[in-house]
Amino acid sequence: MASGSTARSRPNCWPVPCCDAAAVTQAELRALLLDCIALWGIEAKVAVASAGIAITADGATYVVEPAPHDMRPVRWLLQTPERRAANRPPRAIPSIVALLSTLRNALGGEGGAALRITGA
Question: What is the per-residue pLDDT for 23?
């Protein structure tokens, strides 16, 4: 990377070595989840797990992991306590926005106030 460049190198995309340049690293995902959980007003722990990132709240554990490259356009897999108890595979989620929305709803997080733009 040249001096002064704003480009970001991703030498260690996690955990799929063949990911594209827009992939989110494990550290970035964990930081994003920590920020969102705080914003949603949820008491939870976010930790690195062998299968991905584990979010534990009210005794329930949710696991987020990147989908394998061959599952594109699916980007994320979310294992919930309910799916785990029913021996179902993790839910396939197409985007980070859908992942955050699904997690917020599952964890009982507060939605933000709707922004309304009106004419003069």
Answer: 73
Contact 44, 56 (CB under 8 A): yes
**Sheet-wide strand order for 60-66:** 45-49, 52-57, 60-66, 76-79, 91-93
| Gap between the Cα atoms of 15 and 62, Å rounded | 18
Give me 107's structure tokens: 């964890």
CA–CA dist 43, 33 (Å, integer)? 12
- CA trace torsion 11, 95, 35, 42 (10° rounding): -140
pLDDT digits (tens, 9 = 90+) for 36-86: 999 999 999 999 988 799 999 999 999 999 999 899 889 999 999 999 999
**Closest C-alpha to 39, from 107, 96, 86:** 107
Cβ 89 vs Cβ 100: under 8 Å: no
